[in-house]
Amino acid sequence: MMTDRPFTFELNAPGFVPSRYDNHIRRTISSMRGQYHDTAAYEAMAAEGDALLYEVYELARPHEAGELLHGISIVHPGRVGDEYYMTKGHFHTVLETAEIYVCLSGQGMMVMETPEGDWAVEALVAGRVLYVPPCWAHRSVNTGDDDLITFFAYPGHAGHDYGTIEQQGFRKLIVARDGRPEIVDNPRWGEKIMRNDE
Ligand code: S6P
Ligand code: ZN
């Protein structure tokens, strides 16, 4: 087995962009079709151009158990209708894999749920560490006026299952009510389950 040497990198650049990274992922409005509950607001915004909603800087490591995939996630501030800019969100393909987030800057919320329908929302503020246990899907939501910046690390063999969330979203949405973030039920959640029960 090849043994890598230890390495370091800095997060000193403006906006916490890592001093070294291997992948820079940019997710725009067109990659979020079907994710925002206000479809009219979504279509109006998408028609104006392909706005950048969030970015991820990844350090490439082998996708193997024992490795830790890690990097910086930056969700820009903004809204589609009354819903804040957010990541797609996902379960890990290997469901029993955890993830750790450290909030470096900004204000937001991590929306989480399990396949059994249990849910949790934790506020993200600079200096706060969030442990996402195995089996919890996770989505970062920027509820502030500045970038929401987090450092993340998760097991190399975890993989990403986006499809489950794409089908019905998360159980809870974070929306602006009188200028403040509020947790509300996602009207679309459970549709699939109801159909399956018919
Ligand atoms: C990966 C980890 C983060 C997200 C990033 C973007 O397991 O949770 O790196 O990839 O925050 O979110 P998403 O849902 O588009 O991958
Ligand atoms: Zn993850």
Folded structure, characterized:
- The protein has 198 residues and is mainly beta.
- It has a single domain, classed as Jelly Rolls (Sandwich).
- The chain is built from 3 helices and 13 strands, in the order E-H-E-E-E-E-E-E-E-E-E-E-H-E-E-H.
- The longest helix has 10 residues.
- It is globular, with a radius of gyration of 17 Å.
- 27% of the residues are buried.
- Bound molecules: D-sorbitol-6-phosphate and zinc ion (ZN).
Secondary structure category: mainly beta
Bound molecules: D-sorbitol-6-phosphate, zinc ion
- Shape summary: globular
Architecture, according to CATH? Sandwich
- Residue stretches low in confidence (pLDDT < 50, at least 5 long) are none
Query: What is the terminal-to-terminal distance?
Result: 53 Å
Order of helices and strands: EHEEEEEEEEEEHEEH
The portion of residues forming beta strands comes to 35-45%
Q: How many runs of DSSP E, i.e. beta strands?
A: 13
Query: Main β-sheet, in a few words?
Result: 6 strands, antiparallel
Count of domains: 1
Mean pLDDT: 95
In CATH, what is the class? Mainly Beta
Number of helices: 3
Considering the protein shown, what is the CATH homologous superfamily? Jelly Rolls
Question: What is the spatial order of strands in the main beta sheet?
Answer: 1-2-3-11-6-9
What is the CATH fold-level name?
Jelly Rolls
Rg from alpha-carbon coordinates: 17 Å
Q: Roughly how much helix do the residues carry, as a percent range?
A: 10-25%
